[in-house]
């Protein structure tokens, strides 16, 4: 059994650790509420804007270079991860999925649009995948695995606004417009509830009806009947949009704005997931520390009682020896 001095030192260390984890739990809980509010408040707008843009892109003349659909040879992947740790397996699950897709990119190389499915003709290992990282954890892992990191944005946090996303959006939009990339994909953690979040890979460009259907399914609005899907397609084709001053000018403004909003929404979902995961992780750590404090307190009291009993026994033995 450990000495009372050792047990006292362990107890002090665990109690100090518990104070830290409890404080981190409270900070994460406070930030989580604010970020979840922001993510939920913008989710409907982001979804509606993407649906309108999808309908426009499939109904009108696709003269805008951002609406081009081509065989995928070069991909730009926007990877959104936390910049700090202590949030459980959230980061590792996302990075595991991302690295699997990077190492075997065939699925990412299939381009899907309204009525098009372009299968890549080149070998998947010949594909070029450039990565734009948001968050230090993703950046570190991409460098560690020697993947092609072209830009990193680590300054974004829970105080960031949609304007802070503009440099990232401009980077990928310019790459797609100049045909440097044939596909833009986002990888992030989707917030579902305080205890549930899932890693997602989403196609940003080219604009895809298939991706929109997947989003609707994720939101619980799953369209399972084929006839219903066909009816939605027909309705979309019948919609008439009026452009002022012209289709080219309006789309030239709308597309970048909607892409910005999509990246920002993914960032908010990732932030909500991160703070939820960190709050739960720190709560579990605090609970584990409390249990250890209880166990070590019991051991300490037993050791202290044993030491006192031994001292009393030695005193009694000494007194009896003197009496003799």
What does this molecule look like?
The chain has 324 residues and is an alpha/beta fold. It has one domain (23-280): Pyruvate Kinase, Chain: A, domain 1. It has 8 helices and 7 strands, in the order H-E-H-H-E-E-E-H-E-H-E-E-H-H-H. It has helices at residues 4-59, 90-103, 106-109, 136-144, 166-177, 209-218, 226-238, 247-323, and strands at 74-80, 111-112, 117-118, 128-134, 149-153, 183-193, 196-205. The protein has a 5-stranded mixed β-sheet, sandwiched between helices. It has a two-stranded antiparallel ribbon with strand order 2-3. Strand 2 and strand 3 (117-118) form a beta hairpin. Helix 1 (4-59) runs antiparallel to helix 8 (247-323) and helix 5 crosses helix 8. The longest helix has 77 residues, at 247-323. The model is unreliable at 221-227 (pLDDT under 50).
**Which class of secondary structure composition applies to the elements?**
alpha/beta
Quickly give the CATH architecture. 3-Layer(aba) Sandwich
Please name the CATH topology.
Pyruvate Kinase, Chain: A, domain 1
CATH superfamily: ATP synthase, F1 complex, gamma subunit
Number of helices: 8
Beta strand count? 7
Q: Count the domains.
A: 1
């Amino acid at each position: 059994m450990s000495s009372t001095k050792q047990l006292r030192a362990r107890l002090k260390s665990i109690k100090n650790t518990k104070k830290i984890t409890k404080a981190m739990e409270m900070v994460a809980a406070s930030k989580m509420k604010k970020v979840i509010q922001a993510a939920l408040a913008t989710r409907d707008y982001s979804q509606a804007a993407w649906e309108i843009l999808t309908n426009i892109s499939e109904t009108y003349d696709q003269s805008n270079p951002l609406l081009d659909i081509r065989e995928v040879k070069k991909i730009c992947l926007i990877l959104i991860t936390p910049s700090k740790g202590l949030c459980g397996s959230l980061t590792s699950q996302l990075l595991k999925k991302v690295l699997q897709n990077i190492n075997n990119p065939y699925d990412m190389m299939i381009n899907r649009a309204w009525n098009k499915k372009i299968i890549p003709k080149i070998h998947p290992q010949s594909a070029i995948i450039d990565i734009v990282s948001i968050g230090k954890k993703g950046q570190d892992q991409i460098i560690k695995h020697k993947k092609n990191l072209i830009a990193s944005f680590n300054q974004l946090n829970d105080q960031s606004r949609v304007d802070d996303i503009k440099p990232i959006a401009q980077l990928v939009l310019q790459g797609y417009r100049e045909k440097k990339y044939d596909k833009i994909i986002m990888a992030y953690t989707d917030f579902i509830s305080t205890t549930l979040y899932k890693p997602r890979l989403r196609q940003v460009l080219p604009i895809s009806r298939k991706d929109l259907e997947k989003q609707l399914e994720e939101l619980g609005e799953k369209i399972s009947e084929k006839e219903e899907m066909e009816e939605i397609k027909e309705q979309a084709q019948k919609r008439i949009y009026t452009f002022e001053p012209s289709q080219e000018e309006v789309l030239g403004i709308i597309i970048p704005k909607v892409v910005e909003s999509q990246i920002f929404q993914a960032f908010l979902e990732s932030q909500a997931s991160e703070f939820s995961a960190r709050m739960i992780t720190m709560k579990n750590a605090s609970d584990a520390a409390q249990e250890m404090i209880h166990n070590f307190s019991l051991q300490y009291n037993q050791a202290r009682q044993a030491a006192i009993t031994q001292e009393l026994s030695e005193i009694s033995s000494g007194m009896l020896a003197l009496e003799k």
